[in-house]
Amino acid sequence: MAGAEPESIDGGPNGALVLHGFTGNCNSMRGIAHALAGAGFTVELPLLPGHGTTVEDMNTTTWADWSAAAEEALEKLEARVDGKVVVVGLSMGGSLTAWLGTRHPELAGLAFINAAITMPTEMRDGVQAMLDAGTEYLDGIGSDIADPDSTEMAYPQTPLKPLLSLLEAEDSTHPELGNIRCASLIITSKQDHVVPPENSDDLARAVSGPVERIWLERSYHVATQDYEKTDVENAVVDFARRVTS
Asked: How many helices (H) and strands (E) in the chain?
């Protein structure tokens, strides 16, 4: 898909890994990536497997593929810089950010934007029931944006097998969140029609490190492309500068 391409941007001694969300692609996080690059960070913005191509392609992938790609991107970034590294994630990218945070104590900071941390058990059971009944796709969850002039380049459908793998991964990651001891920035839209804002509350309670919270009044789930996108970019850059200084 034109506009979904990954980016590696050379910069200073500190690095930033930027992760997009479920059924989305790099386009939704490009503003964040460029803002961090403009602030002097070396940036890695990977396109996760199955994303930015076709929904049928995504239906062949699971959390194991996305988490492996995120791990590989982090290793690639850490090899490119001499300083500290932060990770920034939107939605499922936030799930991956948390997962990386539980595994990499060397990370300087984690920034979460409407992160998917724990979804209701009923949702997982419902997805499993639909899969058992032979349903592969539902209507898409992308482009939850308040600004009518902005559209996310997300798939028009949601593949259920990959979704189930995400929900199961959240369940397994959640007990490990206390291993996150670095600073966390948690940005949450008060109106989010994809991930309940309570996910951010749960995350803030679970991590062991210092937490900074920002609430968005005018933006929906894809806050990086919504009314307050500039505020989000500025907050992430300010946070990244502070934790890597």
From this structure: 8, 9
